Input
Amino acid sequence: MSKENNTIYWRGYEELSNDLEFVKNSEKEFNMPSEEEKNAAPDRRDFLKVMGFSVAAVSLAACEAPVKHAIPFLNKPEEYDPSIANYYASSFFDGGDYCSILVKTREGRPIKIEGNKLSSVTGGGTSVKTQASVLGLYDNNRFKNPRKGNADIEWSALDAEVKVALDAAKASGQTIYLVSGTNISPASNAAIASFIAAFGNVKHVQYDAYSAHGLLEACKEATGLRALPSYDFSKSKVVVSFGADFLGTWLSSTEYSRQFAKTRRVGPKNKEMSKLYAFESLMSQTGANADYRSSIRPSEKGLVMAALYNEIASATGAARLNSPAPKNNKWIKQAAQDLIAHRGSGLVVDGSNDKNLQKLALQINQMLGNLGSTVSFAAPSYIKKGDDAAMGGFVDALASGSAAAVMFMDCNPIYDHPRGAEIKASIGKTALSLSFAYAPDETSASCKLVAPNHYFLEAWGDAEPRKDCFSLVQPAISPIYKTRQAEESLMTWAGISGSYFDFVKGYWKTNLYPKQKLGYSNFKDFWNYSLHDGVFEVNGVNPRAVQNTVSAGDTTAIVSVPVVATSSLPEPNFSLSLSGLDAQITDSYKGGAAGFDLVVYEKVGMGSGAQANNPWLQEFPDPVTRACWENYLVIPMSLAKELGIKVTEGTTTKVTLKVGGKSVQVPALVQPGQQSNTLGIAIGFGRTETGKTGKGVGANVYPLIKLEGGVLNYSIANATVEKSTDEHRVAHVQTHHTVMGRPVIQETTLARYAKDEKDGRYFPKITTPNGEEPAKNFSLWFSDEVERAPNEMAKGPNKRPNHMWSMVVDLNTCFGCGACVMACTAENNVPVVGKEEVLNRREMHWIRIDRYYKSDMSKAKAEESGVGTIDMYGQMEVPSDDPEVVFQPLMCQHCNNAPCETVCPVLATTHSSEGLNQMTYNRCIGTRYCANNCPYKVRRFNWFSYPENSEFDYNVNNNLGKMVLNPDVTVRARGVMEKCSMCVQRIQEGKLYAKKESRRPVDGEIITACAQACPSEAITFGDMSNKESNIFKLLSEHKDGRAYTLLEEINTNPSIVYLTKVRNKA
Amino acid sequence: MNQRLTSQFVRFSFSLLFSLGLSASGFGQADTSSKAVSAAPAASTAAAPAAGSGDPAAGEGIFKANCKSCHAIGEQVIGPALKDAHKRWPSKAAMANFIKYPQKTIDGGNAYAKGLYDKYKQYMPNHDFLQPADIDNVIAYIVRESENPTAAAPVAGANAAVAGSSTSEDDSSGLLAPVIGILLMTLVVVIILLVVVINLVSKILGNKQEELNEDDLDQIEGKIDWSVLFNHPLFKGVVAFVFVVIIGKTVFDQVYAVGIQQGYAPDQPIAFSHKLHAGMYEIDCNYCHTGVNRGKSATIPAANTCLNCHNVIKTESPEIKKIWRAVEKNQPIKWVRIHNLPDLAYFNHAQHVKVGGIECQKCHGPVQEMEVVQQFSPLTMGWCINCHRETVVKSGGNAYYDKMVEIHQTKYGTGKMKVEDIGGLECSKCHY
Output
């Protein structure tokens, strides 16, 4: 807990309750062996083991060194040099999460995914799922051959069987169903269209595991076009979100994070920023980043939205809705006033799947004149197209036996649709059931045939996430197994000759090449450059006309990003009728009913659960709850008290959740920020047919989703909770690695910042005989060293003339998504340790995003309201229902006066002349003094050897999974310490590129994995000794304002500088 | 152990004799070699724009990079010997055109070019990437070499570099062991002398027994009670100490040598001779080890690189047939890896060769004299660090280093800096 700055921050309820168990463990850096483990005296078997080991060691030492081979190419491809990475532009798409990417390959293996700056959609940002997706390629569990039942068959046999069934279906006139997730690929849709043309009676049904049907239908009613609007958060001054987690999981959140971050940067030259209101039922990332947050009951949501509508309608003179006022109308008036004051630059978004609420949100935007500016239909977004009604129709047809054949493409409805059980029961009624899954899933397990698709990194394809913004998918590796692209399979059965690659190219030639205005004189150039860039944007700018590239082999260094001029495109007519809406809303949002409201939500890491077998994603802690390796019921504190559930050290109790006649048993986790009648649980867990990693982790809650008139409703009323007697431990990481109550979070509000740039900053002072003096005047270290800190360098002397690598983290634009955590895992071969070891506080992530809740009581408030000191501290420890949240990425601070360096007995951790705190694994003997002396708790110890260890049966325990390892980074052995290296391998590589070309590195050319991955550009990395660099300019701007280093009073002088959090409040 | 000590002793004696007198010249050599190293690429990159006439010095570099793998001046390699080639061509323009587009020239009906094709049955690849000035320079080089051939210099230069490095290595290889050796030798000599003297004295005295008194007789005839000596704690202590020291040293040496494969020269699947290719035919290392200027690995050439030449040369050799077999079976050749750095150490060839301008021979030894390649250097960390301490950064012409050169100039009065001066000894330069 942190009690400086007059406010108190806390990281979990455990901390406030001060349980003995928690206090005992919280101050320990390492979880020591238990008493049991300690008391186990060596017995005869241990003795024999030691003996055996010594004999083996001696005999091994006597052996000759093993002969190693070097195997060159037979015929070396021209573009390829061993040890030099090649980047291939491609696209990632999974359940609405779209990213234009560059795939980094080494020795022919994709090892890392980076954002593609040339895309105007994602602009170089990536999401957690995108970063993790590279590991899916090396999933040992993938299909290696086509299958019939449980037997591997040949493609020819499969083709023959499918052809017979399809021909029979065609002859009988019965319907063939092709079920898929949202398909954003124009070429793929064209291939499907040709398949449909060949067989005639084919229905292509698209559905989304997390549906946007309501929004799509509302848009269709308003514009006649069933497509999502493009939101532009960068133009917004006021954003009101009703449970739309646009910074985490809602629609194209990677894109929105980047846009929204643009409105959140404040500095001496720009003292304005957007204002975010969040009305939501569960604490989401968006709510956590909101300036004003109100937790509302899901069953009251419609009334809250109607209240906002009415406020605005009163001001604009439009007709009011006749609906009862909500019980909780916190911030409604103020939000309405702000929206009215910023007409044309406000934005109201709703995250529900209720068409009525979506219509209301669209109408509010229409009334405020936001259409065409922050909400646009001119270039609609295609990332969700799922039709709940069509999907329901399919399930009915399947059940009635009227479907002759069914094929599942990029989807797993038996698992991720509420009617999955019905599909499973009736799938046997069709003559042909086939899945294109690349790895076993619940649906493929029930299908007669499996025609395994390529993984997307092996495939050709394209994507159109937004109208006229195209991107290509190209293989970065040849197919590992005998798989075949789903589209190619469809083409084969439809009798279309040629490869799917030719098909895609042909599609681009006939359909996209005529649209291009980029100045390419022939298709070959157009195709090659589009493939190189990864994107083709009809209204974009040719990157070659504006680009300012350095030929460093790193295409990420392209500076200018073409901007699509959407405003120049015509907006379609928009008209909505709200008649009868108030009655419907009043009917479905009664509010105040007894019982609990359950919200089924999506996690930023796991998403729909398609990547559940990915150990990186399983170990990725949720940004808000900070728990990993399963899902759990998030319950409010009041319910926990009522049921007598105590969460201590991750130990909690399982509860039985009953809703709509279905029940699941899940652990309960107390979460602030939700009303006393609200519960939440995440989808994406409880897979039954997948690899070892994902199987049986958590509970599947898709069946709990309510179907209302065929539409999926994610908030369900009348849930009940019963406490069970089962104790359960949730792998919860937030209370690990404590900060010992020091002021690591410094924040202010915009109004105060405008008056004083230093507001919210903490300046530690030390009392001396001559009065108080700044703490930094007293140092154990030489003053010369002090001047080497980046914050000081921005003020004057430059003590590291060659390079001074530093990083600035803007707490205002860090939304806590965790893409950096995943990028770091992939880049630095960070091992997965599993749930047990996370519970033992031994997780290995080099960068973590701490999440702090803020207490309502503060010293200032106490003074104002005349609360006494004792009462004040007492109230500080009362958890607030709607706490403010701060995210803080924390990695090695690369202190210029590093406490770890001074205590290492073997000099395994030292400082480089470029400002890096170096960790030398081969020198480390594992005393762990460094970690004990680290004030930031960022060092990680290898308690075990994680690779080749059957106790940690994750990706590095098999030869295929090891392919993802970055060959430039050592795989650490047991018994050594490790930590963030500031991606020294990338620094060295970048410097070498520069040296080879006899020049200095260009700013932006060398960038760490975390900074590269960040969708909101919250992390700025660069060279402080280069006065032209962005980081130098940024720090020069903030050096006397928002820039602060952690624990300034101990004079460690970190190279990581934080910018204070500024909330847009009075 | 014995070998080691003797070799150290021999090395020591040599170094003792020569180091004082020669160390200065040894360092001198190292210096000149590094100068030579930095000068050579500079010459090859400097393009002399003298139109028409051409600059033979510039041409030499181009010739070596592009022509030498198939042509020599004085003898036929893959293509004809180029001595007086300029005289055989009707005009210089025709010759230049042929260099640029050989196949076009031959197919175009040029009589001399056609004659060449009939003789060699092979097209030379196009050299359209060469600028006209480059071709002029190459021709100028051929003219110069035809008129007054110069001896090949770079190999000698490389040898000098190697010699320089090995002497300097000996200087630093620890003075303690040789000193102990010398002391031991002196001790042995003294003991032998003492024994001889005692024997002599005993003999002389034994001849005059009657002149001696009881005590003296006791001294001469009395048996020494060895058990007293053997049981003496001091003796035991000394023996134990010597034993422990010897065992300790042996163990240390053995353990230290684990993983050091200096001299490792395994049999390779194909009996490729560097002596023939790099030595006799002077084929540039870069021609086959193409990665050396680009990335971490110098790379072992792909089979197609071998067959560039060997589809016409020595095609009947059983060793060459192995390459063909590999290509036909689509099974890459499994060479035995000689240099095995541990995974924890990062080494990048491009940094050392392209940026640092280090000759290959500096680390790999006189490869051009090796029939079977062996590991020349110990590849220990001490060996790396030592070189980083001694080597002057090749900062000339590389703008990356300008900033540091300037700082060194103002601070120390010289722009020359060693690798260690700019952070070359820091851990994370090689370990991450």
User: Anything to note?
Assistant: Chain A has four domains: 9-20+738-1063, 147-211+386-562, 222-376, 595-732. The longest strand of chain A covers residues 715-729.
